[in-house]
Structure formats: structure tokens, C-alpha cells
């Protein structure tokens, strides 16, 4: 199995400086994937500057998505799920894996409806050797059930299962707060997705790097030891 090369890139400004940093970033020694993730996590830091915060789906959109998902869940999905038994204050979490992507459906037994859905997507931007270890979560929680720790509990389940999580290119204010809250318990750092490689940027990144859509936040599936 081919090993993925990880890079450590410094913070730079401007397109030319950014390109120079990408070309000249020294490669970390080639290593097994689990060891590579631990090495990246060891260099991460809990205090980060801010990523782009400019996405937020309006409540009607979230409700409509969950209503449409409810029909598919009852018709075709529920029979293929297992109950995770997560501590969700009376809510149930159902898990299904499909094509390497992990879906967690949050159900309110009293209301008899889905109130949330988290899918841990595969990342086409990274080398296939990292695919078993890295996912990117996409989350929809009904407004009435937000702020109850649902997303945090599901993310912890994935992190404790060994996955490292990479954020989307943009974050909502709620997602931004969630990632930084989890960063108090798991290593959190900026990374850059370049030519199928993960480059560690650390807790600080220049504005030119933070604004790039290839710059993301990463939570490492290795509990932080502080």
C-alpha cells in the first residue's frame, strides 16, 4: 500500500507566497497511516484563528430536507440500520454504512419523526490510502433540537471510533462553535488539501490561506492529552 506524504506548511500571504509555500513545504517522513495521523495530531493546537463562517441553511430548508428523508428512511433505510445507543436524552440514533459513508439518523420516538441526520462523507480530495481514516461530516438538525448536544455526541462517536474529521470548505456559526468545543477534547488544526495530500498548517494561518477553499479544519480521532 502506497504511503501518503504529509506536508507541514507555514503561514504565508498572497497567491505567489502561498504557491511558494506549497512547493517548498518539507515532507514528513513516510510512515504508516495511523502513525502519520498521530504525528499530525501531536503538532495540532487547541487555539485557532477563524475559518470562513458564511453558511447557514434556513430552518425551512432543514425541515424540508428531514421531511423528505423521513419518507425514504421508513420505506427503505430503517430495515438496514442498527441502533447506536448514544446518550441523546430520549432520542434514538440509527446507523447505516453505505459505500464507505456512515449515516446517523436521529429519531424522536415520541414525535415519530427524524429530527436530524449526520453523514460522514468520503473525501475525493485525498489519497485513497487515507480513505479508511478520514471523513467529512455533513449535518442537519431540526431547529427545535439544536443546542442539545446531538451533533457533538454523534461527532464524538465517530472520533472515538477512530475517524479523523475534516470540515467543509465553509462553516455555519453553529458548526464553527461545535468544532472549537470539540477541540478542547480532541486535537484540532488547520490542514490544506493539495494534490491528494494533507498539509498541516497548525493553529495559525495567514488570511490568504484561511480564505482558500482548500484550507479546512481537522479534528483528529486521537484524544488530546493535555
Gyration radius (Cα, Å) is: 18 Å
Structure classification: alpha+beta
- Backbone shape: globular
Point out poorly predicted stretches: 1-14, 20-32
**N- and C-termini, Cα separation:** 33 Å
Order of helices and strands: EHHHEEEEEHEHEEHE
Mean of the pLDDT scores?
A: 80
* Strand coverage percent: 25-35%
Q: Please give the largest β-sheet.
A: 10 strands, mixed
What is the β-strand count? 10
Physical arrangement of strands within the biggest beta sheet: 1-9-8-10-7-6-5-4-3-2
Looking at the chains present, what oligomeric state does this protein adopt? single chain
In DSSP terms (H or I, runs of 4 or more residues), the helix count works out at 6
Describe the structure.
The chain is an alpha+beta fold and 226 residues long. 28% of the residues lie in helices and 28% in strands. It is built from 6 helices and 10 strands. It has helices spanning 15-24, 33-42, 59-77, 150-160, 173-182, 207-210, and strands at 7-8, 82-83, 92-98, 101-108, 113-121, 134-141, 164-166, 186-194, 197-202, 215-223. The chain has a 10-stranded mixed sheet, with helices on both faces. A hairpin with a 2-residue loop joins strand 8 (186-194) and strand 9. The radius of gyration is 18 Å and the shape is globular. The two termini are 33 Å apart.
Amino acid at each position: 500500500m502506497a504511503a501518503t506524504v504529509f506536508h507541514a506548511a507555514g503561514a504565508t500571504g498572497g497567491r505567489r507566497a502561498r504557491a511558494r509555500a506549497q512547493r517548498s513545504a518539507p515532507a514528513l517522513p513516510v510512515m504508516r497511516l495511523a502513525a502519520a495521523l498521530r504525528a499530525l495530531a501531536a503538532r495540532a493546537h487547541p487555539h485557532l484563528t477563524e475559518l470562513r463562517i458564511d453558511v447557514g441553511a434556513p430552518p425551512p430548508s432543514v425541515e424540508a430536507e428531514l421531511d423528505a428523508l423521513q419518507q425514504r428512511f421508513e420505506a427503505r433505510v430503517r430495515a438496514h440500520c442498527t441502533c447506536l445507543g448514544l446518550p441523546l436524552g430520549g432520542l434514538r440514533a440509527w446507523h447505516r454504512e453505505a459505500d464507505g459513508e456512515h449515516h446517523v439518523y436521529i429519531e424522536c420516538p415520541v414525535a415519530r419523526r427524524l429530527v436530524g441526520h449526520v453523514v460522514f462523507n468520503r473525501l475525493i480530495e485525498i489519497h485513497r490510502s487515507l480513505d479508511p481514516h478520514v471523513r467529512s461530516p455533513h449535518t442537519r438538525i431540526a431547529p427545535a433540537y439544536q443546542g442539545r448536544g446531538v451533533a457533538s455526541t454523534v461527532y464524538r462517536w465517530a472520533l472515538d471510533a477512530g475517524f479523523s474529521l475534516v470540515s467543509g470548505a465553509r462553516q455555519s456559526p453553529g458548526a464553527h462553535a461545535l468544532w472549537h468545543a470539540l477541540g478542547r477534547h480532541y486535537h484540532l488544526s488547520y490542514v490544506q488539501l493539495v494534490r491528494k495530500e494533507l498539509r498541516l498548517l497548525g493553529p495559525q494561518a495567514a488570511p490568504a490561506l484561511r480564505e482558500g477553499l482548500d484550507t479546512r479544519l481537522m479534528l483528529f480521532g486521537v484524544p488530546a492529552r493535555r
